[in-house]
Amino acid sequence: MGAEYLKGLWDENPVFRQLLGMCPTLAVTGTVITGLAMGLATTFVLIFSSLVVSSIKKLIPSQVRIASYIVVIASFVTIADQFLKAYFYPISKAMGPYVPLIVVNCIILGRQEAFASKNSVGRSLIDALGMSSGFILALLVLSTIREILGAGTFLGYQVMGSWFKPWIIMILPAGAFLTLGVLLGIALVIERKTKRS
Amino acid sequence: MSLSSRMVIVLTTVGLISGGFLAGVAQLTKERIALNIQKEIEEAIVKVVPGTTQNRKLYEEEDYTIYGGQDELGGTTGYAIQATGIGFQDKITLMFGIDDSLKKIIGLTIIDQKETPGLGAKITDWNAFLQFWTDRDATGPLTLRKPPVSSLEALSSSEINTITGATISSQKILEIVNLSLEKLKKFISEEKIAGAGQNVN
Hints:
Number of strands of chain A: 2
Helix content of chain A: 55-70%
Largest sheet of chain A: 2 strands, antiparallel
Strand order of the largest sheet of chain B: 1-2-3-4-5-6
Oligomer: heterodimer
Radius of gyration of chain B: 22 Å
Helix content of chain B: 25-40%
Structural class of chain B: alpha+beta
Shape of chain A: globular
Radius of gyration of chain A: 18 Å
Number of strands of chain B: 8
Largest sheet of chain B: 6 strands, antiparallel
Shape of chain B: elongated
Strand order of the largest sheet of chain A: 1-2
Strand content of chain B: 25-35%
Number of domains of chain B: 1
Distance between the termini of chain B: 66 Å
Largest interface: A-B, 28 and 23 residues
């Protein structure tokens, strides 16, 4: 069980190892708050989709499984979107179209196809929790670096002194690609080092 | 049961359950979402026409709404105009306040924008941009001050400061405001809308 959860954090981390969910990873990590909100919204969708898919997997003919999964996923995404609009309006506005776009996040459909549709409800839940934690972790690392370097703030609070001139490129799309590239490189180096020893 | 009928039944059922569920969720959140949007508009009106406690919609068309503001005693505080126009990246929705005599723009605030983070997005920043919209002369069209100055006092009353690195965003906002202002004056001279303080009904 522990291993099932931990694999999402590192060995099969959706962002650093599987390179899934790149669109939200690049698009909403300009500030920590939007990165965190995206991570939590994705977690909600992933957990509930996995629960539903793993419990109805035997009823669904394999020919229509993808269509059924997408309907289930889209429903939970809509719920997340409505909830954010109703209770966290400013954050929902800052995320723009990226909440509805969770529907096409490959992490979610990927986990349904690769895991929830083949495993028990309990194991699917653990898997979903692990994968979402890995996703949140990646988004937090990325958004922390980008917000501190790009705006000099963390969660909106000034953390850099007045001597610091924000690197505007870090909160632009180019900064997202640069940060992600460097982080992927670091992840690969760590992976090699630990495998060898 | 044949495979194809099973496929139809499963997909239909999944769709119906999801649809029903979502209809319920939409019912639950609808009111709150509408309230959030209304609150945002009201807060913006108070920001650009200070002292307003009540407002009434005087005129509405696509991307252009005029609100009349009143204080507690029923006295007129001015007009708040919400307008949407094309910015540098996408549409910008803003609101600005103008006094009752149409002589002075009291202030401006941005309701929605998707300008470049760190550059054009500074249009929402008080120090970088919004402070330069305080008490502008509304009798003629406003012009852009380029290169920008650092204090409000250095601008003439019909000038607006440019954001360094975001001239187009600044320019577009100026265009939206000038256009909206012209429209407001036309409506009032044609008596299409009543004065802010008067009862429209």
